[in-house]
């Protein structure tokens, strides 16, 4: 018997276990998943918890629920990968041999990367909403908060779900309007990028949002430290922004296991071929989702498209065939804009988000890069799709792993070659 | 897309003034773009520019952190060399794309 070993049973790892369970011969392959967690979180739901739109219990289910019967789950911390011996060492001393390894260990926040952030004010005046605990604590804080300066902040790129901080600012505007205290809250969006929107079409279509919602923008802000005494964040250029409540997206890092294994970049992301999803570490090691260093967004939809392509490539690898360099960086994300509306964006490595309709050309029903109530309903419906289709590795009808050009307002002269 | 002329050479730029093709870049073009950003280039500036171009050729996404750890400059020095939005300015002078998020 040969061993297919998957590290991490989050969105990517669970999807791969389901895909490969359907494709690999059970007479020839054992599939094993390793994860220390007991709970599978619906991470897109974290955004809604602080505003009490979702209850915490709506975003969690048991990790086992989504793992096929033929796949073994080992609940243990991963110590390191020994690529030369094709072995993974677990914290409890267990050693696992593999023929093919998939790294799906994701990314986590690292507030300790910024001086002053992880002190006695962490989860008191300074919150994250990228963890279950952070989102819950922030909900409790917002329930009784009397108002003041709310600063929504990104420490540094890359981060998981790059639009989530902006969505947070939009939802905060709605939340305080509904609480009839918007005039007591000053919302500032602070980003290391040169704007809230960084691509030409999105800036043109969506530039009005910040102004309409009276959200102040501080761009090009690269945080050096937090001064918790004076409730100020300070950047390397000396710029200062005061806060009463700081909602930050801390530095995102890959799993420490990657560093212990002796590969990974500065932030523990695994060097991976952006077209094939094979790592550059060794031929029989693949990586997917937030764990990789590929220049695609760190998002569940990206992982979903990657999973379809990685499954094909692993089947090809096993048969000794050349891998397809077909992953185009496709991402498809709903963006909440508050007041029951949302945007939908569809893009890839080379094509910026454009206007048009999705998923059916000329029909929709979802509109791209425009606010609509239908898109908001789409975002809420996505929770059902996630639990029932996406992580079980079922194909979502009409949605291709490659970005489709049909029904979108794409300028032909700039046609990128990667788009079909 | 627009066409601009730097140091007597016509180059294709984005509407925000970033070169479309690093292949069209040369040091004289870099010097003129730097003037537009009110920066007088020194050997240290060029050392940073050359690091950014190497990373771009490798397909690595650039961040302030990675530059700080590059051994070429510290983050503080990077700010001193290219004040206010150093990554954005340095990328433009280097002829590589503007750092962007997904929208």
Count of helical regions of chain B = 5
Q: Can you give the mean pLDDT of chain A?
A: 94
CATH class annotation of the largest domain in chain A: Alpha Beta
Our measurement of the CA-to-CA distance between the termini of chain B, rounded to an integer number of angstroms, reads: 18 Å
Quick one: which chains have the greatest interface? A-B, 36 and 28 residues
Strand order of the largest sheet of chain A: 5-2-1-9-20
Tally of DSSP β-strands of chain A: 24
| Percent strand of chain B | 5-15%
Query: Globular, elongated, flat, extended or rod-shaped: what is the shape of chain A?
Result: globular
Morphology call of chain B: globular
Percent in helix of chain B = 40-55%
* Main beta sheet of chain B: 2 strands, antiparallel
What is the count of β-strands of chain B?
2
Assembly state here? Answer: heterodimer
Task: Give structural notes.
The complex is a heterodimer of chains A (420) and B (103). With 420 residues, chain A is α/β, with parallel strands linked by helices. Chain A folds into 3 domains: 2-106 and 255-318, 3-Layer(bba) Sandwich (FAD/NAD(P)-binding domain); 111-251, 3-Layer(bba) Sandwich (FAD/NAD(P)-binding domain); 331-414, no CATH class. Chain A contains 8 helices and 24 strands. Chain A is 23% helix and 26% strand. Chain A has a 5-stranded parallel beta sheet with strand order 5-2-1-9-20, with helices on one face. By secondary structure, chain B is mainly alpha-helical. Chain B has one domain (2-94). Chain B has helices at 27-36, 43-58, 64-68, 75-81, 86-94; strands at 2-6, 9-13. Chain B has a two-stranded antiparallel sheet with strand order 1-2. In chain B, strand 1 (2-6) and strand 2 (9-13) form a beta hairpin. In chain B, helix 2 packs across helix 5. The longest helix of chain B is centred in the middle third of the chain and has 16 residues, at 43-58. The A-B interface holds A 156-158, 162-163, 192-194, 197-200, 202, 206, 219-220, 222, 224, 236-237, 251, 265-267, 274, 293, 295, 297, 331, 333, 335, 345, 347, 352-353, 414 and B 1, 14-16, 59-61, 63-66, 69, 75-76, 78-79, 83-88, 98-103.
């Amino acid at each position: 018997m040969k061993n297919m070993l998957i590290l991490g049973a989050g969105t990517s790892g669970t999807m791969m276990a389901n895909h490969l369970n359907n494709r690999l011969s059970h007479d020839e392959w054992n599939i094993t998943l390793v994860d220390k967690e007991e709970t599978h979180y619906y991470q897109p739901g974290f955004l809604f918890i602080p505003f009490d739109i979702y209850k915490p219990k709506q975003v969690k289910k048991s990790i086992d629920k989504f793992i096929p019967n033929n796949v073994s789950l080992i609940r243990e911390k991963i110590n390191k990968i020994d690529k030369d011996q094709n072995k993974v060492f677990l914290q409890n001393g267990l050693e696992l041999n593999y023929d093919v390894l998939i790294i799906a260990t994701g990314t986590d926040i690292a507030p300790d990367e910024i001086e002053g952030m992880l002190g006695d004010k962490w989860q008191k005046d300074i919150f994250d909403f990228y963890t279950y605990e952070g989102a819950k604590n922030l909900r409790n804080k917002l329930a009784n908060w009397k108002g003041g300066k709310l600063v929504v902040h990104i420490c540094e790129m890359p981060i998981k779900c790059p639009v989530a901080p902006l969505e947070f600012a939009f939802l905060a505007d709605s939340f305080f309007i509904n609480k009839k205290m918007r005039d007591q809250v000053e919302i500032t969006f602070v980003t290391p990028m040169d704007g809230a929107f960084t691509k030409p079409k999105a800036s043109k279509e969506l530039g009005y949002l910040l102004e309409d919602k009276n959200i102040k923008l501080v761009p090009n802000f690269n945080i050096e430290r937090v001064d918790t005494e004076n409730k100020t964040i300070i950047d390397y250029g000396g710029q200062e922004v005061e806060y009463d409540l700081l909602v930050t997206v801390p530095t995102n890092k890959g799993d420490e296991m990657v560093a212990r294994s002796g590969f990974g970049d500065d932030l523990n992301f695994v060097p991976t071929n952006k077209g094939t999803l094979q790592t550059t570490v060794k031929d029989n090691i693949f990586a997917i989702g937030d764990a990789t260093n590929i220049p695609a967004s760190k998002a569940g939809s990206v992982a979903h498209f990657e999973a379809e392509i990685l499954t094909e490539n692993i089947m090809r690898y096993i048969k000794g065939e050349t891998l397809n360099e077909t992953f185009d960086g496709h991402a498809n994300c709903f963006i909440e804009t508050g007041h029951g509306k949302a945007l939908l964006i569809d893009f890839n490595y080379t094509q910026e988000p454009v206007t048009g309709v999705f998923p059916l050309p000329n029909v929709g029903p979802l509109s791209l890069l425009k606010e609509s109530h239908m898109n908001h309903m789409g975002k809420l419906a996505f929770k059902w799709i996630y639990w029932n289709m996406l992580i079980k590795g079922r194909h979502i009808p009409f949605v291709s792993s490659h970005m489709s050009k049909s029904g979108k307002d794409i300028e032909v002269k700039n046609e990128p070659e990667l788009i079909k | 897309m627009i066409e601009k002329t730097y140091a007597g050479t016509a180059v294709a730029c984005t509407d925000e003034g970033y070169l479309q093709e690093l292949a069209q870049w040369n040091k004289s073009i870099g010097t003129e773009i730097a003037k537009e950003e009110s920066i007088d280039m020194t050997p240290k500036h060029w050392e940073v520019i050359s690091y950014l171009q190497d990373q771009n050729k490798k397909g690595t996404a650039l961040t302030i952190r990675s530059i700080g750890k590059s051994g070429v400059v510290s983050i503080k020095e990077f700010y001193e060399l290219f004040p206010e939005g150093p990554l954005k300015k340095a990328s433009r002078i280097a002829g590589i794309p503007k750092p962007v998020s997904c929208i």
